[in-house]
Amino acid sequence: MRRVEKSPSITEHGIKTETESAKLYNHLGNALQADDQIEQAITSSRTAPRINPDFLLAHNNPGDAFIHVGGLNSIFKAIANALNPDALFAFSLETDGDDAEYKLRTSGPYAHSMTYIRKLAKENNLTEKHLEAATIRMDKNEALKGYIVVLGN
User: Fold this and answer.
1) Is the pLDDT at 68 greater than 50, yes or no?
2) 140 Cβ partners below 8 Å, 6+ apart?
3) 145 and 82, same structural domain?
4) Is the pTM of the predicted complex or chain greater than 0.70?
5) Mean pLDDT within 56-72
6) Residues 26 and 100 in one domain
7) What is the mean pLDDT of the chain?
8) R_g over Cα of the chain
């Protein structure tokens, strides 16, 4: 079985020859996120759905990055602009029950309030299709609470 290279530099080299490859930009976003280069990962992940809005995995990466970013205004705007009429935008987010739009937790990731998410959805003409309280991840054997959110046009 062939080993898949996850190095950002290898993927960046591929992008130089395949400038319109949504899959390569998506892969680069994953590699940069794994390398803790969060801002660059988000930039790369935003490029993939612009190249190919029907490439669903490209819309997933920004959702995975939400815990690393406070303000989500520009992400919501970009995704709302890229969504086809029948497409859905699904993501998870952590919350701590606070009404602050977002805040950096002591454990590192950001928590976002549902009030903030609903405000962004309304500002970008997205409607709530599904909302489910869930355990988003485990941190040192502690269940971190949040939501699974699905928005659409």
Assistant:
1) yes
2) none
3) yes
4) no
5) 65
6) no
7) 75
8) 16
d(CA 108, CA 36): 12
Q: Are residues 27 and 76 in the same domain?
A: no
Helices marked H in 4-68? 8-17, 22-34, 38-51, 56-64
Q: Are residues 106 and 139 in the same domain?
A: yes
- Which of 64, 85, 108 terminates a domain? The answer is 64
Model confidence at 12: pLDDT above 80: no
Residue-wise DSSP of 94-120? E--S--SSEEE-TTSSEEE-HHHHHHH
Q: Which residues contact 8 (CB under 8 A, 6 or more apart)?
A: 28, 31, 32, 35, 37, 40
As a whole number of angstroms, the distance between CA 37 and CA 29 comes to 9
The Cα–Cα gap between 82 and 91 comes to 16
CB 49 within 8 A of CB 60: no
Q: What is the pLDDT of residues 95-129, one digit of tens each?
A: 877 788 999 887 778 889 999 999 999 999 999 99
Question: Who's near 121: CB < 8 A, 6+ residues apart?
Answer: 76, 127, 128, 151
| Domain boundary pick from 64, 83, 111 | 64
Which residues share a beta bridge with 149?
A: 91, 131
Domain that holds residue 30: 1-64
